[in-house]
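User: I'll paste a sequence; please echo it back and then give the predicted structure.

Assistant: Echoing your sequence first, then the prediction.
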Amino acid sequence: MASAFSHAIAALSIGACFPSGAPKRFWIAGALCSVLPDLDVIGFGFGLQYGDPLGHRGLTHSLAFAAALAALVTFTVFRAGLPGINKRILFGYLFLATASHGLLDAMTDGGLGVAFFAPFSNTRYFLPWTPIHVSPIGLSRFFTDRGLDVLKSEVIWIWIPAGLLALIGRGLRRAQPSSSR
Protein backbone atom coordinates (compact mmCIF):
# COMPACT_ATOMS: atom_id res chain seq x y z
CA MET A 1 0.00 0.00 0.00
CA ALA A 2 1.01 3.58 -0.42
CA SER A 3 1.23 5.59 2.82
CA ALA A 4 -1.72 7.50 4.26
CA PHE A 5 0.18 10.74 3.57
CA SER A 6 0.36 10.00 -0.13
CA HIS A 7 -3.26 8.88 -0.38
CA ALA A 8 -4.33 12.21 1.13
CA ILE A 9 -2.03 14.17 -1.17
CA ALA A 10 -3.54 12.41 -4.18
CA ALA A 11 -7.06 13.28 -3.00
CA LEU A 12 -6.14 16.93 -2.48
CA SER A 13 -4.65 17.16 -5.96
CA ILE A 14 -7.80 15.64 -7.45
CA GLY A 15 -9.84 18.22 -5.52
CA ALA A 16 -7.82 21.00 -7.13
CA CYS A 17 -9.40 20.00 -10.46
CA PHE A 18 -12.90 20.67 -9.13
CA PRO A 19 -14.66 24.03 -8.63
CA SER A 20 -12.70 26.61 -6.71
CA GLY A 21 -13.82 28.09 -3.43
CA ALA A 22 -14.64 24.77 -1.76
CA PRO A 23 -14.78 24.97 2.04
CA LYS A 24 -12.28 23.22 4.28
CA ARG A 25 -14.66 20.31 4.94
CA PHE A 26 -14.65 19.47 1.19
CA TRP A 27 -10.88 18.96 1.37
CA ILE A 28 -11.02 17.11 4.70
CA ALA A 29 -13.74 14.76 3.42
CA GLY A 30 -11.69 13.97 0.30
CA ALA A 31 -8.55 13.26 2.31
CA LEU A 32 -10.44 11.06 4.79
CA CYS A 33 -12.18 9.15 1.99
CA SER A 34 -8.78 8.52 0.40
CA VAL A 35 -7.29 6.89 3.50
CA LEU A 36 -10.39 5.11 4.81
CA PRO A 37 -9.93 1.96 2.67
CA ASP A 38 -6.92 0.99 4.79
CA LEU A 39 -9.12 0.50 7.83
CA ASP A 40 -9.41 -3.04 6.50
CA VAL A 41 -6.13 -3.82 8.29
CA ILE A 42 -8.11 -4.18 11.52
CA GLY A 43 -9.34 -7.46 10.03
CA PHE A 44 -5.93 -8.98 10.80
CA GLY A 45 -6.78 -8.68 14.50
CA PHE A 46 -9.98 -10.67 13.90
CA GLY A 47 -8.26 -13.50 12.05
CA LEU A 48 -9.04 -12.36 8.50
CA GLN A 49 -6.37 -13.36 6.04
CA TYR A 50 -4.84 -10.84 3.65
CA GLY A 51 -6.45 -12.47 0.61
CA ASP A 52 -9.95 -12.79 2.09
CA PRO A 53 -12.70 -10.71 0.45
CA LEU A 54 -12.77 -8.51 3.56
CA GLY A 55 -8.99 -8.74 3.99
CA HIS A 56 -6.47 -6.05 3.17
CA ARG A 57 -6.91 -4.56 -0.31
CA GLY A 58 -10.20 -6.43 -0.68
CA LEU A 59 -13.70 -4.94 -0.58
CA THR A 60 -12.68 -1.57 0.89
CA HIS A 61 -10.31 -1.00 -2.03
CA SER A 62 -12.96 -1.74 -4.68
CA LEU A 63 -14.76 0.59 -7.03
CA ALA A 64 -18.08 -0.47 -5.46
CA PHE A 65 -16.83 0.63 -2.04
CA ALA A 66 -15.62 3.94 -3.51
CA ALA A 67 -19.10 4.57 -4.93
CA ALA A 68 -20.86 3.54 -1.71
CA LEU A 69 -18.61 5.67 0.51
CA ALA A 70 -18.92 8.68 -1.83
CA ALA A 71 -22.72 8.35 -1.77
CA LEU A 72 -22.82 7.93 2.01
CA VAL A 73 -20.66 11.00 2.65
CA THR A 74 -22.43 13.08 -0.02
CA PHE A 75 -25.89 12.36 1.34
CA THR A 76 -25.12 12.40 5.08
CA VAL A 77 -22.20 14.72 5.79
CA PHE A 78 -23.12 17.08 2.94
CA ARG A 79 -26.90 16.53 2.89
CA ALA A 80 -27.42 20.31 2.76
CA GLY A 81 -24.90 20.53 -0.10
CA LEU A 82 -22.10 23.02 -0.49
CA PRO A 83 -22.31 26.53 -1.94
CA GLY A 84 -21.37 26.42 -5.62
CA ILE A 85 -20.82 22.65 -5.71
CA ASN A 86 -23.74 20.44 -6.67
CA LYS A 87 -24.06 16.94 -5.23
CA ARG A 88 -23.07 15.20 -8.47
CA ILE A 89 -19.78 17.11 -8.51
CA LEU A 90 -19.25 16.39 -4.82
CA PHE A 91 -20.02 12.69 -5.30
CA GLY A 92 -17.61 12.61 -8.26
CA TYR A 93 -14.81 14.11 -6.22
CA LEU A 94 -15.35 11.81 -3.25
CA PHE A 95 -15.58 8.78 -5.55
CA LEU A 96 -12.31 9.67 -7.30
CA ALA A 97 -10.59 10.42 -3.97
CA THR A 98 -11.62 7.02 -2.60
CA ALA A 99 -10.94 5.09 -5.82
CA SER A 100 -7.49 6.66 -6.08
CA HIS A 101 -6.53 4.59 -3.04
CA GLY A 102 -6.88 1.28 -4.88
CA LEU A 103 -5.22 2.69 -7.97
CA LEU A 104 -2.15 3.81 -6.02
CA ASP A 105 -1.97 0.50 -4.15
CA ALA A 106 -2.10 -1.35 -7.48
CA MET A 107 1.03 0.60 -8.44
CA THR A 108 3.05 -0.71 -5.48
CA ASP A 109 5.72 -3.40 -5.65
CA GLY A 110 4.28 -5.64 -2.94
CA GLY A 111 1.22 -7.31 -1.50
CA LEU A 112 -1.40 -9.41 -3.24
CA GLY A 113 -2.92 -6.80 -5.53
CA VAL A 114 -6.24 -4.95 -5.32
CA ALA A 115 -9.75 -6.45 -5.59
CA PHE A 116 -11.10 -3.64 -7.79
CA PHE A 117 -14.29 -5.56 -8.59
CA ALA A 118 -15.23 -6.81 -5.11
CA PRO A 119 -17.80 -7.87 -3.98
CA PHE A 120 -18.40 -9.43 -7.41
CA SER A 121 -14.89 -10.85 -7.72
CA ASN A 122 -12.02 -11.21 -5.27
CA THR A 123 -9.46 -11.39 -8.08
CA ARG A 124 -6.55 -9.15 -7.16
CA TYR A 125 -4.86 -6.89 -9.69
CA PHE A 126 -1.69 -4.87 -10.02
CA LEU A 127 -1.18 -2.31 -12.74
CA PRO A 128 1.42 -3.29 -15.34
CA TRP A 129 3.72 -0.65 -13.88
CA THR A 130 4.53 -0.83 -10.14
CA PRO A 131 7.14 1.83 -9.33
CA ILE A 132 5.90 2.71 -5.81
CA HIS A 133 7.56 0.90 -2.90
CA VAL A 134 4.96 -0.79 -0.72
CA SER A 135 4.51 0.88 2.65
CA PRO A 136 4.87 -1.22 5.79
CA ILE A 137 1.70 -1.76 7.80
CA GLY A 138 1.83 -0.06 11.20
CA LEU A 139 3.30 3.19 12.46
CA SER A 140 6.27 1.63 14.24
CA ARG A 141 7.34 -0.11 11.02
CA PHE A 142 6.77 3.03 8.95
CA PHE A 143 9.15 5.23 10.96
CA THR A 144 12.24 3.24 9.98
CA ASP A 145 14.78 3.37 7.15
CA ARG A 146 12.35 1.32 5.04
CA GLY A 147 9.63 3.92 5.66
CA LEU A 148 12.02 6.64 4.51
CA ASP A 149 12.67 4.69 1.29
CA VAL A 150 8.90 4.41 0.80
CA LEU A 151 8.48 8.17 1.25
CA LYS A 152 11.26 8.87 -1.25
CA SER A 153 9.52 6.61 -3.76
CA GLU A 154 6.17 8.28 -3.09
CA VAL A 155 7.59 11.79 -3.51
CA ILE A 156 8.76 10.82 -6.99
CA TRP A 157 5.78 8.74 -8.11
CA ILE A 158 2.87 10.36 -6.23
CA TRP A 159 3.66 13.77 -4.72
CA ILE A 160 5.33 15.34 -7.76
CA PRO A 161 2.67 14.08 -10.22
CA ALA A 162 -0.07 15.12 -7.75
CA GLY A 163 1.43 18.60 -7.54
CA LEU A 164 1.50 18.81 -11.33
CA LEU A 165 -2.13 17.65 -11.51
CA ALA A 166 -3.14 20.32 -8.99
CA LEU A 167 -1.33 23.03 -10.96
CA ILE A 168 -2.93 21.91 -14.22
CA GLY A 169 -6.37 21.73 -12.59
CA ARG A 170 -6.05 25.22 -11.17
CA GLY A 171 -4.72 26.54 -14.45
CA LEU A 172 -7.62 25.06 -16.39
CA ARG A 173 -10.11 26.54 -13.92
CA ARG A 174 -8.54 29.98 -14.27
CA ALA A 175 -8.61 29.70 -18.06
CA GLN A 176 -12.39 29.20 -18.08
CA PRO A 177 -14.44 32.22 -19.08
CA SER A 178 -16.03 33.83 -16.01
CA SER A 179 -19.56 33.16 -17.33
CA SER A 180 -19.03 29.37 -17.10
CA ARG A 181 -17.86 29.36 -13.47
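The mean pLDDT is 91. The radius of gyration is 17 Å.
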